[in-house]
Structures are given as C-alpha cells and as structure tokens.
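Hi, here's the filled form for the chain we discussed.

Project: internal
Contact: R.S.
Residues: 93
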Amino acid sequence: MAPILEVPVPDLTLIAARRGGAFSADEIFRIVDGQADLGSHGPRNMPVWGYEFFGADADDETAHGEATRKVESVVEFLRSIQRVPGDAATPHP
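And the returned structure, exactly as it came back:
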C-alpha cells in the first residue's frame, strides 16, 4: 500500500530513535488509540484503533477493557520491533 499513499510511510521500527532513544508507551498508546492531538501533523492516515477495537459496544465497560488490552498489545509489539538506526539487526534497548 505504501506506494499509493500520499504521505511517506514512517518506519515504525525507528519510533524510539525519532524520540531521542526513548519509547514512551503512554505517548504511543494515545496515538494508536486516537487520544493524541496530531493536528500539526496533518490528517490521520492510520485508523484510530481505539474506536475500531470497541466495535458496536462502545459504551460497554467490558468492550472498553478489551479495546484497551488490544491497543496495549499493539504498543508492546511496536516496542518490541524498535531498532538502532542504520543497524537493521540490532534491536533498540
């Protein structure tokens, strides 16, 4: 899909590197779930997954807990794939 998008696709393995070596799970959670205000970055090209994970039961507390767990799983996956720039084989600490 990357070739047909209007904006460059960010390298998700370099999130920490772009933030001075730190991976803030709270910040990434808010971005993935749609809470972060990214207005200065233009339109959101990624779905707001927090809302997608709620499904039809957005007002249900159980659905909210499940959506939160799913977003946390995405955040942990993103943390696990961080790497040092220029070294595709070395994970970021």
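Let me know if anything looks off before we file it.
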